[in-house]
Amino acid sequence: MIFNPPEKIYISSANVDMRKSIDGLSSIVGQKFQLDMFSDAMFVFHNRHCDKIKILYWDGDGFCLLYKRIEREKFHFTRHISDDVYSITKEELSWLMHGLRVEEIKRYEALKSEVSTV
């Protein structure tokens, strides 16, 4: 199976109990976030220690649940988010999944583009 993430990727800003599975997480998507759990979107949840994430998505005929535990680091989520859920890009999800800090990469990309225009 070749996986291609959907265009919309949402991250929960609150910690989630990692014992929750498809039913519990889809309930959060529908009730708390007021989003359509059957849409072409991924929903990313993390635990309190930010060393585990679960990703829920609908692939057209069923729910998929991805789980990752990072061994030596933490996942670095964007700080100071006031909403219950926020959106990121596919690239940012990839960086996040590898334990990189999205905010630092964005600063680096901005600096790199400034230098290239000089």
Explain the overall architecture.
With 118 residues, the chain is α+β, with helices and mostly antiparallel strands. 30% of the residues lie in helices and 27% in strands. The protein contains 3 helices and 5 strands; from the N terminus they run βαββββαα. Strand 1 (8-15), helix 1 and strand 2 (41-46) form a beta-alpha-beta unit. The radius of gyration is 15 Å and the shape is globular.
Quick summary:
The chain is α+β, with helices and mostly antiparallel strands. The protein has helices at residues 22-32, 90-97, 102-117, and strands at 8-15, 41-46, 52-58, 63-69, 85-88.
How many domains make up the 3D coordinates?
A: 1
What is the structural class?
Answer: alpha+beta
Strand content: 25-35%
Strand arrangement, major sheet: 4-3-2-1-5
Number of strands: 5
Relative helix content: 25-40%
Mean of pLDDT: 85
Q: Pick out the low-confidence regions.
A: none
| Major sheet details | 5 strands, mixed
Q: Features of this protein?
A:
5 strands; alpha+beta; 118 residues; 5-stranded mixed beta sheet
Please give the structural blueprint.
Elements: E1 8-15, H1 22-32, E2 41-46, E3 52-58, E4 63-69, E5 85-88, H2 90-97, H3 102-117
Parallel strand pairs: 1-2
Antiparallel strand pairs: 1-5, 2-3, 3-4
